[in-house]
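Give me the fold.
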Amino acid sequence: YRCCFARLPPSVMATHHQRQQASQRPSRNLCAQSAALPRFLAVLDFEATCDEPVQLAQQEVIEFPTVVLSSETLEVVAEFREYVRPVLHRRLTRFCTELTGIQQATVDGAEEFEAVARRHHQWCRGLGLLEEGACVFITHGDWDLKSMLPAQCRLSGMPVPRYLSTWCNMKIPYEHVTGMRCGGMARALQQLRLKLEGKHHSGLDDCRNIARIVAHLVRRGGVEAIQPTWPRRRRGQGGLTETPPRQAAAAHKPRRAQAIRVQLGSGG
């Protein structure tokens, strides 16, 4: 029940080697160096336990997927997917299975969140995503990393991974680049005249579709359009400030039954 693999085209590996060599040379332009663009764009979209007509008071991550794009070629260079065994609501609701396609036997054979999160961290490190400035993590909305991840980490008795504490909410660059309001993922694809591929609310398929939207935005607005949108700047402050995870999760009101997402960020 685990899918974790990477494919790095020769062109991407060659570019990575060239950049490593260039980074060893002294820079004559410190401003340009500080404004270096990320090499990778990583889309994360959790699926979680859910029900209708009343949402579960405590949702749990049951699918942890990530799709990584090269920011230069906009090709998918790596994918990660693992299912997660819930501990509070061990039996998936009929609604959850129909919505996500995730079967009871799949989560029964999976490990709990902490073990899966540890392997995701190792996978990101192996790809070089956790190097400073190497990657921007992207989600469709803030719910995955602002609300679901902190709540899941508290339940699992672990700290929130630092590399997932900052991310880009794709809806913001989408509206900036296209001039259109970004609603749900299916609507965004339709507005860009892109076909929805795979099963909607399958975490990995959603990541792939969101990655296609991100690639479209980069082609139109450049990689610089994809910048971290969280933590947000507060008025009167020059730096970035972050809402503590406990406050962020408390501010989240359980939504009516729908697919649940979460995405991850960078750095140890």
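The beta strands are 2-6, 40-44, 47-48, 61-70, 76-83, 135-139, 168-169.
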